[in-house]
Amino acid sequence: MTYKQIKWMILFVPTLIVGLWEYVRHQFLMPYISMDLGNWLTPILVYLVSVTLLNQLFSQLEKIQQELQAERAQKAALQAREQLAKELHDGIAQSLFLLSVKVDQLEFTTDRNKHEDAVYAVRKTVHEVNRYVRQAIANLKYSTNTNSEVVLKETLEDKVKQIADEVLIPIELDWNIKENVMTPKEKIEILACIREAVVNIQKHARASKGWIVAQGDEAGWVVTIKDNGDGFREEIIDSKESYGLNIMKDRAEDMKWQLRIFNHHALTTLEIQKGGGED
Question: Where in the numbering of this chain does the Signal transduction histidine kinase subgroup 3 dimerisation and phosphoacceptor domain appear (predicted)?
């Protein structure tokens, strides 16, 4: 029995049963059943129909709904896998091919300056592959969850908190951006930037504490990552060895965001801003 048929049966069966009962009662049973007794028997009959026939119909309806939800979840999972396959092809596979070409060039490079440039290019490509992998994983998390629902239950703030908890340095979080302010792509990119900044605090800053502050709305927002480490040196921002920082700059440029790094009140501050976010 189809979903539509079950719904129509649930609607019409009680009506038909009561109508048939009333017809039989008034045409054939009036000499045997009084009006008061017949009025009491009508709701009892409706109850008996409900707990027998209608209960079975509702069970079948719930079963069909569960099957539909399972199909939707399976479809969402397939779409997520297709998306991952596309990203693997467009990002990782092409980067690995480029990496192999650069390694071949490196093998036959004798000029020292060209050799250093080639080594830098290889290292940057490796970091880009890592970026693509993280982005693909993040996209999968935003496509579906382990409960087979196409609803994201984990908020952006929760994910930022997870990133902060991954490092050994205590990081204080103050997140004041509503969940619907950023698009899924913006969430993926800002998470990648925050993760890179937090990892840099642990690896290079020699800091004892960090802060992540976010505020703004649909008109614009700003995310600030601070630490009390050694401080920021201007020459680092253009250094070829700052792979993570260069990738963050590329991400910000792609998303039309402003990225600034500066020292303020003995704190190293990295600021990512979109639109008219607060300073």
Answer: 81-141
Angle between helices 112-143 and 94-107 (to 10 degrees): 170
Domain of residue 261, CATH code: 3.30.565.10
Query: Is 98 a residue whose pLDDT tops 80?
Result: no
Whole-structure pTM value:
0.52
Q: Do 112 and 60 sit in the same domain of this protein?
A: yes
Q: Is the C-alpha dihedral spanning 35, 40, 46, 49 positive or negative?
A: negative
* Residue-level pLDDT at 215: 95
Q: At what angle do helices 55-87 and 112-143 cross, to 10 degrees?
A: 170
Do 180 and 68 lie in one domain? The reply is: no
Q: In what order do the strands lie in the sheet containing 267-275?
A: 171-176, 210-217, 220-227, 267-275, 258-264
Instruction: Decide: 75 and 148 in contact? Cβ < 8 Å.
Output: no
Tell me which residue range forms the domain holding 214.
156-275
User: Is residue 197 located within the same domain as residue 70?
Assistant: no
- Please provide the average confidence, as pLDDT, over all residues in the chain: 80
CA distance 189 to 87: 15
Name the nearest CA neighbour of 129 among 97, 95, 99. 95
Decide if 191 contacts 248 (C-beta within 8 A).
no
